[in-house]
């Protein structure tokens, strides 16, 4: 909810990074939280909270589902591919390099004539 709130309030490109993945022993347990399924989140909330919060839980899940932009990218500092993937996602989000000129000499063979 904090990520969604920041995304809506700031109206800026936003990347959610789940850091400290190098400390997690069983990464499969976190897979369901990286790109959360709304029905799974609703069942988890309903199990952990009292029945008086069922309507609030449903409203929160509908909010997350309507934006469908809340996902997390795992960052493991011990793996270079993980760092490269996070950097690529950030570059894509801020459209880094979009304004760079294309060098024609890199794509067109030169005429020897």
H and E order = HEHHHEHH
Helix-strand category? mainly alpha
The low-confidence parts are: none
Largest sheet: 2 strands, parallel
Strands side by side in the biggest sheet? 1-2
Level of helix content?
A: 40-55%
Strand and helix map with partners:
Elements: H1 2-10, E1 17-18, H2 31-34, H3 38-48, H4 54-67, E2 73-74, H5 80-94, H6 104-107
Parallel strand pairs: 1-2
Helix pairs in contact: 3-4
How would you describe this protein?
The protein is mainly alpha-helical. It has one domain (1-96). It contains six helices and two strands. It has helices at residues 2-10, 31-34, 38-48, 54-67, 80-94, 104-107; strands at residues 17-18, 73-74. The chain has a two-stranded parallel sheet with strand order 1-2. Helix 3 packs antiparallel against helix 4. The longest helix has 15 residues, at 80-94. The chain starts with a helix and ends in a 6-residue tail after the last helix. The mean pLDDT is 79. Pfam families: ATP_bind_1. InterPro entries: Gpn, P-loop_NTPase. This is GPN-loop GTPase 3.
Features:
113 residues, 2 strands, mainly alpha, flat, two-stranded parallel sheet
Summarize the structure.
The chain is mainly alpha-helical and 113 residues long. 50% of the residues lie in helices and 4% in strands.
